[in-house]
Design goal:
alpha+beta
């Protein structure tokens, strides 16, 4: 997400079974990333935890995105996405 191209109300969400990530553009070129972990999705007494981190848009966001992709892909066979 590029800070100069993002709409001030732009929100994007990605999720897997146990992890959700919500990115929200804020004025001043910052992106709020809310990470939510849900270890049990089928139990009535389950819990979740969320933390929001703030990142500058542009190059810092691009670097963070590349780091996260590398971390998530580290155990995947080459050529599999």
């Amino acid at each position: 997400m590029n800070a100069k191209d993002a709409d001030p109300t732009d929100t994007r969400t990605w999720s897997t079974r146990h992890l959700a990530l919500k990115a929200v553009f804020r004025s001043g070129g910052h992106v709020g990333l809310t990470w939510t972990l849900r270890p049990w999705t089928t139990r009535a007494d389950s819990w979740e935890v969320s933390v929001t981190t703030w990142v500058e848009g542009g190059e810092r966001m691009a670097a963070l995105s590349a780091d996260i992709r590398q971390f998530l892909d580290r155990d995947r066979p080459v050529g599999v996405r």
